[in-house]
Amino acid sequence: SILSGEIMGATIAIDLGLKRIGLALSSGVAIVTPLPAIERKNRNQAANDVKKVLNEYGATAVVIGIPMGSTTEDEMRRRVEHFMNLVDFKGEVAYQDESHSSQEAEALMKGEIRYKRDGRIDSLSAKIILERYLKL
Fold first, then answer.
1. Cα 65 to chain centroid, rounded
2. Which of 123, 100, 136, 94 is nearest to 16 (CA)?
3. Rounded to 5 degrees, what are φ and ψ at 15?
4. What is the mean pLDDT of the chain?
5. 73 or 136, which is more confident?
């Protein structure tokens, strides 16, 4: 616990998209904060940028959204595992069902400039994925 001077490592959620990678952070408290999304130019740049974020926050665990129970689940797991190998992350990697998290994120942003693709939706999706994982 924090009282004994130990700081629990951060958990970062990743919403792995083809154009952008949404990120959200929980640092041991029951609050999840969206982080700026990463623009994906190529796989190595994306992996390096994710690695920087994980190091910056001292992440000890990563939660990655995948569409569980869908026809693409196995393929997505393979893609995610490959990506995380590139990131070279030594901590715990968990998977969370991301079904409908994008629609949920869009619903949360209704009334805002919803179709401005600045990565907010991606990071909001990551936030929802992490909240589901932490059962908040």
1. 7
2. 123
3. -105, 100
4. 87
5. 73
Could you give the angle at the alpha carbon of 109 between the alpha carbons of 103 and 112, nearest 5°? 140
Nearest to 67 by CA among 131, 129, 25, 119: 129
If phi > 0 it is left, if psi is from -120 to 50 it is alpha, else beta; for residue 104 that is alpha
Looking at this protein, which amino acid is placed at residue 19?
A: K
pLDDT of 117 > 70? The answer is: no
Whose tokens are 């908040």? That residue is 136
- Residue entry with tokens 């959200």: 24
Provide the phi-psi class of 125: left if phi over 0, else alpha when psi is between -120 and 50, else beta.
Answer: alpha
Residue 5 clears pLDDT 60, i.e. is over it: no
Residue 125: its pLDDT value, please?
A: 93
The answer, yes or no, to whether residue 50 has pLDDT greater than 80, is: yes
Rounded Cα distance, 124 and 103, in Å: 10
Element (H, E) at 90: none
Question: Residue length, the chain?
Answer: 136
Question: Measuring CA to CA, how many Å separate 13 from each of 26, 50, 93, 131, 132?
Answer: 8, 11, 10, 9, 11
